[in-house]
Amino acid sequence: MQSTKSRRKVAPSADGGDSGDKSEQLLLSSAICNGEELGPFVRKAFASGRPETLLHLLRYFSRSKESEIEEVCKAHYQDFILAVDDLRSLLSDVDSLKSALSDSNSKLQSVAGPLLASLDAYVEAQNISKNVDFALTSVASCVKLMELCSRANYHLSNGNLYMALRCLDSIESDFLDKTPSSTLKRMLERKIPAIRSHIEKKVSKEFGDWLVEIRVVSRNLGQLAIGQASSARQREEELRMKQRQAEEQTRLSLRDCAYALEEEDDEDELGSGIGDDKDGYANGNSGWLGFDLTPLYRAYHIHQTLGLEDRFKQYYFENRRLQLTSDFQVSSMNSFLESHQTFFAQIAGFFIVEDRVFRTGGGLISKFEVENLWETAVSKMCSVLEDQFSRMQTANHLLLIKDYVSLLGVTLRRYGYPVDALLDVLSKHRDKYHELLLSDCRKQIAEALAADKFEQMLMKKEYEYSMNVLSFQIQTSDIIPAFPYIAPFSSTVPDCCRIVRSFIEDSVSFMSYGGHLEFYDVVKKYLDRLLGEVLDGALLKLINTSVHGVSQAMQVAANMAVLERACDFFFRHAAQLSGIPLRMAERGRRLFPLNKARDAAEVMLSGLLKTKVDGFMQLIENVNWMVDEPSQGGNEYVNEVIIYLETLVATAQQILPTQVLKRVLQDVLSHISGQIVGALFGDSVKRFNVNAIMGLDIDIRLLESFADNLAPLFSEGDANQLKNALAESRQLINLLLSNHPENFLNPVIREKSYSTLDYRKVVTISEKLRDHSDRLFGTFGSRGARQNPKKKSLDSLIKRLKDVS
């Protein structure tokens, strides 16, 4: 066949019409030939109201194309005829080919039939094999799935919740989407969330049980920890006591100064027994303490596995905070003194547990949260202490609570908790404690003094001597006396010493372990108050109200001398307990704090002795003041006085220190001297002669001899001081017996020999002196006799002294 050339499409020309119609016809023909859309032409025709024109143009275009079609058909007619002839020639060939194909098909069918049957059998077998393989794979997958399910059930039944969750995670990730059984898949999709919920509830219940149990464990744990801190403190105190004993023995030279402190295998029980376990924190168990964190850590781990870590942290913190808040409740059924140990032990155990959880819990609780809980606890404990301390009126109660709080501070400081606020509360109530302690000691001292019988204390055994004498270092000799031993003091002395020593130890105990390293000045201040105000005041009251006899006054004076030695021990003991060198304590010593009571006791003893002596001195009224010859053996009154004084000295030297006895005797002798001078100066003696003065000179010599005889008991200087107590009477007698009494007017001689005499008394007494010629009716026999020069000098002295006055 022949192909015809493509012709250019040309729009036919119209025979008539105006130029506008022709242009529209050309545009429409071009658009149709080029395959463009006729929509614009249609819209334009209707818009202009001339749709008939458009229809006419389309019909015209259609008629013009019919002629063109005819021309094309004519051009291809010959080619079509030739093609039909070719087709007719091919019919025969097609028939032969058809018969050949039919034969070939018959042969193929006969040959391929068995093959097709075999192929069908093979395909069917292959499909069966695939189904079997798929079934085996499905069965294997199901078997593994069921094994995991069985393992999960096994772990659940044995309480291995974490392993059960691992099995569930493995089922979800490896088998759930690939499970061929829709029934099994639906069962797993329903059971897995239920099992997880069950595990969560179970660990939550275990955790809840642990929260209940840990409160009891915390209380026991706190008591144990504080008890171990107390034991450690006690061992430390015992070591210090041994050191003080060694130092004291060295100071007293009782044995060689070489000593060694024993080394103790001081394992840190707090560190090894509380809060540290050697198994790591895998199980959170602290062994013999019963401090088991396993349920907590298991619950935390399970919640981590469940993806609920943050929720569990918050739940744990809130529950522990509620527990701590409930621990703050102070029981109103019992006094705080009875419940304070449980109160503080509960809090201590709580924070020991929290420290352990913080260090080994893997982030279960943060440091900030622990600090927040501790700040809350410190604030509450300070508030409770402030309230309870403000109500307490017994020093021992404050001390017991303070000691336990300080042990609490020592215990928790080991775990890094700041306890300064608690110690500040204790320091704040230091003054109140000491005021209460002073009040208690005032009552005890008053009771001890009221029970005193003013009798020397009898000690039958050495342990009594050690307990009442050596323990207060009031012995006068390092030699142990023979027993039974009669002490120079009464039972009041050791009783008061024990009260003061207990005060020192209680004061040091309150000040110790309170955050202040140097507190000796505080202890000393209150010790001065105890001695200077309480004890001194009580002794003054005793002296002024209860002492009525010489023996009682002598016993009190002896007690004061012993207490003076005891005061040295008190300050040394306070220094030793406070941990400062003794030289610093001795450097800061003041005067004897009981000086008022000591002086009052001596004044009381002297006063009673003077009263007793005054009874003997009344015998001076029996003296013959105009005697013809002086008495060579002394007047009666002086003999009685000397006998009494000798008896007094024999008794007093057994209990009174020599210096006290010297001061008392000096005061008594001075009083006797004053009484002799007073007798001459008084109105009862109108006149006297030289022989009476010579008798008084013998009396004073006897008293001076009594003082000289005390030289073995006192030193030579003390004996001279006793003689000087008679200076007024001695100087007066010397003046009256002097051949030149006008020397009294010489300032140098007067200062040397008559310094104690009052010139007014000298004038009065000198006027009473009469010689033998002055006796009654003596003037008739002696008229015109020469005047005695001594008398003349004495009269001149009297006249001169009167002129001066």
TrEMBL record:
The keyword Transport applies. GO terms for cellular component: cytosol; exocyst; membrane. This is Exocyst complex component. The lineage of its organism: Eukaryota, Viridiplantae, Streptophyta, Embryophyta, Tracheophyta. Keywords: Cytoplasm, Exocytosis, Transport. GO terms for biological process: acceptance of pollen; Golgi to plasma membrane transport; intracellular protein transport; pollen germination; pollen tube growth; vesicle tethering involved in exocytosis. Residues 1-10 have a biased composition (Basic residues). Residues 58-226 form the Exocyst complex component EXOC6/Sec15 N-terminal domain. Component of the exocyst complex involved in the docking of exocytic vesicles with fusion sites on the plasma membrane during regulated or polarized secretion. Involved in polarized cell growth and organ morphogenesis. During cytokinesis, involved in cell plate initiation, cell plate maturation and formation of new primary cell wall. Residues 1-23 are annotated as: Disordered.
